[in-house]
Every structure is written in structure tokens, then in C-alpha cells.
Amino acid sequence: MTLQNELKQLGLAETNLGGSTGLDWFANGEFITSYSPVDGKEIGKVKSNTKEDYEKIIQKAQEAFKSWRLVPAPKRGEIVRQLGEKLREMKPVLGKLVSYEMGKSYQEGLGEVQEMIDICDFAVGLSRQLYGSTIHSERPGHRMYDQYHPYGILGVITAFNFPVAVWSWNTCLALVCGDVVVWKPSEKTPLCAVACQKILADILQENNLPEGISSIVTGDKAVGEWLSKDERVPLISATGSTRMGKEVAVTVAQRLGKSLLELGGNNAIIVTPNADIKMTVIGAVFGAVGTAGQRCTSTRRLIIHESLYEQVKNALVDAYKQLKIGDPLDTSNHVGPLIDKDAVKMYLNALDQIKKEGGNIIIEGKVLEGEGYDSGCYVQPVIAEVENHFEIVQHETFAPILYLIKYSGDVQQAIDIQNDVKQGLSSAIMTANLREAELFLSASGSDCGIANVNIGTSGAEIGGAFGGEKDTGGGRESGSDAWKFYMRRQTNTINYTTDLPLAQGIKFDLG
């Protein structure tokens, strides 16, 4: 299939596009070819950026920041409102591009664009709520308060699995906060990035605003290194593997920059004797096979009490037999392809490792062949019985592999098993017992940034702060007070008297 009509609607009729706002004169590097994992066909080409291109883009961003930071926050919110309206209009076509270029189901592609719309709405409201605090001074005739100012350039590094949503989480908040954005998208989904940039660039142009407010820099990991090392970029938000995040963290810290990291997950659902089996199966199956297991919040581990272990296992096997694997644009299918053949190799290596460590694979994995599977990226979702300490279980595999782990004690034992991995992103417990639920949410409970009761690990609403602890990086994006990352905090003291008293009662007389 082709997406030529959709590309035209997105303003991408010519798919040999460049960086910044998609203008060829800003991109002088090699072409990046985008192939769809759905059918293996070429979608289009995007020019990568050279270091010289990068310098021009950063300079434009610096210039744009000088004027953008002075625009009142509610006026900045108006630009984000227009972005949200345009995304509503383009939701079907952009969702289709996301699905075809990344491989997730069309419903998930539409859901990702809806996340963009939701964060626009959130950010518009936020533009009138960038609150500081008034503080009582110990000195008479003095007033203290704190306020927030924009930092400058935000560098955004995103992964292939959410090719548009994560950019919007960062960009919408950063824009209302007065920052400008330079985006390094995944080279595996470049057309999605160019489409988003084109939409926003058109809005900026219509409002007579400088294009440097939002830019993209396309290319490989070298672009991420340029951003991470660049002292002109005070903030870096990076989404991807833990390995990548550690490199970014060290590089940015060396120049005393600020980094927001959203890295790997190894997410578990605890199933207690008080769980609703039907809810458990639905949550676990969607969490494990949604986006073909390529979400940072995908369910990797199911920690099941021995009293209902066999019942849950049998229900899962029955559910997996009903899964339809194929073209994600066909809404009757549940599971689409992995992103590319490198991902398929990691999937196969993980299956070998499970067997070497003594795991029992209940539903065997394989690469699917035949009509409809021409790309070589479609695989069978797997269920395996394992122990939590297995080396392969301790690491994140970006594929539809669900591990079943049995526990026999109380819920605290299950929580300890859940926490006994290096990652700490998302977690869940299935129980109708209030005490178990509250223990799970207590200080001795889940050590993850996200802890859910009677819902799965996958998916999150934009109203809450999204992120995790430990090897997940500690960052928070999207809702709640995540906006504070994008602004610098300043404490102000005003003396409205004719005296100059010092704090702490210090005396300093000059005679």
C-alpha cells in the first residue's frame, strides 16, 4: 500500500525532505530512507543534517528565543491551541502515517494523535497557571516571592515507538513556558517528525512568528551527541534505552546542564488471590502485545499467586489463541509488526536465552511467513514461565514476550519480586482487597513512578506526570507539575522601606 494521499494532506507531497521546517536548503546530509515495517515498502526519504546545518538551526533557535520569551504566556498558549485544532483536523491522516511508518495498530496511531491533542488542551490551560509563591519575609517592610522564567532551547530526543506523542508532551509544555524546541527524532520514523514540524511551522508562519521556535534536526546518534554536548542547549529531554540515557546524562551533567530522562521499563502486574480474572487477562494481554510489546510501559512480567496461577495461565493461553496478527491498518488485527529486522533478531535472541536459563515457553515464538508478512517483521507473541532472577528477565526486551512468575506468600512477597529489577517505570496490582491495594501504593509498595490498581501497566493519561525511577531515569513529562522542568526558578525579595535590615539579624554598620 502507499500513503501518497495522506502525505499530500500533511503537506509532504515531496517526500525527499530536509531538516528544520522541512526545507531542503537546511539539510545537506545523506538521505534517510523510511521503510514501513507493515509491508517493507519505501515510504519516502528525508535528508539528514550536517554539523553545519545544525549550527544554523541552533542559531535560528537562539534568535527566536529572544522574542518568544517576551510573548505573554497566554498568547503562547494560543499558538498551542491552534496546534491542537489542526491536529484534530489531521488526526485520521497523521494517525495513519504513525501506524504505517511505525507499525502500531491504526487505533493506537489515532490514540497517539489524541494524546497530542490532549496535551495541547492541558498546555493551553497551563499557560494561565504558571504560578509562583509568595513568601513571608523575616525582615519588616520586605516581600519575597518566587517565579519561573523560560530556560532557552530545549533539545528533545525521541524514540521510534511513540514518534509524535512524546515530542508533543515536551513541545507543548515548553512553548507555553517560553522555551524554543530543537527536536532530534528517531531515524526509524522520520516522516512522522517532518509531518509534525510542518504542521507547527505553518501555524508559526500564519501568526508571523519566527520558524526557529520549533525545529527538527534529522540524523543518527551523532545528532543526539551534538545536542547533549551543546552548552547553548540548557535542557535535554531524552526518551529511549537506558544505555542511551546514561550516555546523555553523563554528557549533559559534565556541562552542568539539565536532563529529563524517560528510559527503559520492566513492568509487572501482580495478580493476588483477590483479583478479577477477566480484568486481569484483558489488562495483561493488551499490555503485553499492544504496539507489539514495543512500549516502555508494556507488560513484561505477570506475578501470579499460586492459588490461581493455573487458572490465569490457561485463560491467557486461550486469549493468545484469539490474537490476529497482521497489517495494523486492518482494524480486525490485534498485533502489528516489530519496527525492523534488528528488533526481530533481539526477539529471537531473547527466546534462545529463555531456554538456556531454564524457562518454559508455553506459546512458542517464531517469525511469521507467507502472504501479508512480506516485511519479515511479524512475530508470534510469546508466553514463558520463568524465575524473576533470570538474566533475560532482568532486562527489557522490546518485543511481545510475557513472563509468568509464581509467588506463594503474601502480597509483600509479590511486591518485593516486582521491585527486584533495575527499572522502575510502570506497575500494577489486580485485587479487590483494599489492604493489598493500599500496601502496594505505600512507601513499602511499588518503587515505580507509575503504580496502578485494577488497570494494566500500559498507557497513561496526560493529566498525570509520566516517568519512572531507577534505570528509568527519574524524569517526569506531561501533566501535574512537570512544567517546572522547562523553566528556571527565581526567588525575588523586594524592600519597600528606607532601611536596609539584613537577614538572620546580622548587623553591619558603617558608622
- Would you tell me the overall average pLDDT? 95
**What would the principal axes of the Cα set say about the shape?**
globular
Structural class: alpha/beta
Strand content: 15-25%
Straight-line N-to-C gap? 87 Å
Biggest sheet record: 7 strands, mixed
Please give the order of strands in the largest beta sheet.
Answer: 13-14-15-12-11-17-18
Q: List the uncertain runs.
A: 15-25
**Compute the gyration radius: what is it?**
25 Å
β-strand number: 22
Structure description:
This protein is 37% helix and 20% strand. The protein has 511 residues and is α/β, with parallel strands linked by helices. The strands form 6 sheets. A 7-stranded mixed beta sheet has the order 13-14-15-12-11-17-18, with helices on both faces. A hairpin with a 5-residue loop joins strand 4 (133-136) and strand 5 (142-150). The longest helix is centred in the N-terminal third of the chain and has 30 residues, at 73-102. The chain is globular. 52% of the residues are buried. Residues 15-25 have low confidence and may be disordered.
Offer a quick outline of the entry:
It is built from 14 helices and 22 strands.
Describe the protein's topology.
Layout: H1 4-9, E1 16-17, E2 31-35, E3 42-47, H2 51-68, H3 73-102, H4 106-126, E4 133-136, E5 142-150, E6 153-157, H5 165-177, E7 180-184, H6 190-206, E8 214-216, H7 221-229, E9 235-239, H8 242-254, E10 258-262, E11 267-271, H9 277-289, E12 299-305, H10 309-321, H11 341-356, E13 360-363, E14 382-385, H12 391-394, E15 401-407, H13 411-419, E16 423-424, E17 426-430, H14 434-440, E18 450-453, E19 465-466, E20 469-470, E21 477-478, E22 487-495
Helix pairs in contact: 3-4, 3-5, 3-6, 4-5, 7-8, 9-10
